[in-house]
Design goal:
The protein has about 475 residues and is α+β, with helices and mostly antiparallel strands. It contains 18 helices and 14 strands. It binds iron/sulfur cluster.
Length: about 475
């Protein structure tokens, strides 16, 4: 039966009346002030509704009337809105907002998308939402829920939220433009969730929804769902320091033992055709390779049980991409980014190159995080804090612990990304790399330089993060995370 948008919207319109109201609608119901709605919308990006609602309450207490925003410094704003996702960036946007409105729009919030996107921190999604909610004007506001659900229904077949917006502008009947975003956000948060949607209790199941590319939530006793499905639960990252050498040292046994849905490798130092078939074609996995142009150097690879929608090779910057250091898999609900950061080299000879890579990598991560959740795994080649290496004082000016490298890690966590291992474990002596010299591994004189970092939106599905220091075969050991 072809999918009917009218039937779906009629059922959902009734259904979501019992659901929690999305935070921006809530702010709109409490205040008709477009300025407050604009602020709530900026804060809500990549942040859970309850966190946004609390931040709005604290902020609106301080800025009554809203023009008071101009009197708050970035540091004060950071303090007030913490812990919304990317609170540092957002505090900067809010601090610049009154001036931008004054200069461009005579201190009024504009009511059209093209004007709104000129404001700091306002992308198309935010602009469309403000036009709809603050001004009651029809606009097509597409966030990750709308993009995902419209594709599950097969109503559009698109790869990005922007493409979905364009497709919906041409196809979605105008009578739904005002309400469909609120309905689908509420529905996407409560029932048609990005991971394991509740098809078991969905009003659209069993007739209306074609469930394209969906793995429904496992229900106890539901034999049909007892296989592993294609949900990504466990991800492993390992700098193998030469895949051919690691193979001789039990790589395939470790691979089987760790039993990951995604297995990311750094420093493979090989071309795929230099590797044996048993490795290139591991049963149940698709393999993606990104070797460096220079033979026997650097390079990354990813094995994935779940087929990605798209694979991105590199960071899109010629200065770095010949070294094969970034390999990204896009799935419908998240990006997995495998990164191998350069070493700053003795005497910090390559520090400038490394810092340039750091900056480009963070911009790349930020860009993808605007679209959907991001999970970044790899060898970051930096120990963040003194607790992350055995001899911090002796290494203060050395590669991997120099102040500028560490400052970049501050920037990453300051932007709201989560160092998953430290999220669970504050113990010293937890390392992922040891020098081959001086029996460093036996004495546990090591460094924690391999990480999994996730965006705040992924935090509530994270259940563990681990270092597998019992696994040999490289001077690094594997690290892993598990999701619900
Ligand atoms: S049936 Fe499942 S996939 Fe389809 S809309 Fe409902 S929850 Fe989403």
């Amino acid at each position: 039966m072809p999918f009917s948008i009218d039937a779906a919207m009629a059922l959902l319109d009734k259904e979501v009346r019992h659901y929690q109201v999305p935070v921006v609608d809530l702010v709109a119901a409490q205040s008709k002030d477009p300025f407050k709605i604009l602020i709530a919308t900026i804060l809500s990006a990549r942040t859970k509704d309850e966190v946004t609602a609390a931040a709005c309450r604290r902020l609106f207490k301080r800025i009554e009337p809203p023009a008071d925003l101009a009197g708050l410094s970035v540091a004060e704003l950071e303090k007030i809105i913490y812990p919304v996702g990317f609170f540092r960036n957002k505090a900067g946007y809010l601090a610049r907002l009154p001036g931008a409105l004054r200069e461009m729009f005579d201190s009024r919030v504009p009511d059209d998308v093209d004007s709104l996107v000129k404001l700091p921190g306002v992308g198309r999604k935010t602009a469309n939402l403000v036009v709809t909610i603050a001004f009651g004007k029809p606009a097509v506001c597409v966030d990750t829920h709308v993009h995902r659900i419209m594709n599950i229904w097969g109503y559009v077949r698109t790869e990005t939220p922007l493409a979905t917006e364009m497709a919906l502008r041409a196809k979605l009947p105008k009578k739904y433009w005002l309400r469909f975003n609120s309905i689908l956000v509420a529905f996407g948060q409560a029932t048609c969730r990005p991971v394991s949607p509740h098809c078991d209790r969905c009003v659209l199941a069993g007739g209306i929804c074609p469930q394209i590319d969906v793995t429904p939530r496992k229900m106890p006793g539901n034999k049909k769902n007892e296989s592993k499905g294609d949900a990504v639960k466990k991800i492993v990252s390992w700098n193998v320091n030469g895949l051919r050498a690691a193979l001789k040292n039990g790589f395939l046994d470790a691979f089987a033992e760790l039993d990951a849905d995604i297995f990311a490798l750094q420093e493979i130092k090989a071309l795929p055709d230099q590797l044996p078939d048993e490795l290139r074609n591991i049963r149940g996995y698709s393999a993606f390779w990104y070797p460096a142009q220079k033979k026997g150097y650097s390079g990354t690879a990813v094995f994935s049980r779940r087929k990605p929608l798209r694979v991105l090779y590199g960071l899109g910057d010629k200065a770095f991409d010949h070294e094969g250091r970034a390999l990204t898999l896009e799935f419908d609900d998240f990006y997995f980014i495998n990164l191998y950061f350069p070493n700053a080299q003795p005497g910090l000879k390559r520090l400038d190159f490394k810092l340039a890579f750091d900056r480009t990598a963070l911009q790349f991560i930020d860009r993808l995080a605007q679209e959907k959740s991001v999970v970044v795994g790899g060898d970051f080649n930096v120990a963040h804090k003194p607790i992350d290496l055995a001899n911090p004082q002796a290494n203060e000016k050395n590669p991997g612990f120099s102040p500028p490298e560490r400052a970049w890690m501050d920037e990453v966590t300051g932007a709201g990304y989560i160092d998953t291992f430290r999220h669970f474990n504050q113990e010293p002596g937890q390392y992922t790399w040891w020098s081959y010299r001086f029996k460093a591994r036996e004495k546990n004189i090591g460094w924690r330089i391999d990480y999994f970092v996730i965006d705040p939106g992924s935090a509530d599905r994270l259940v563990s993060a681990a270092i597998h220091d019992n696994v040999r075969g490289s001077d690094h050991c594997p690290v892993s995370i598990e999701f619900k």
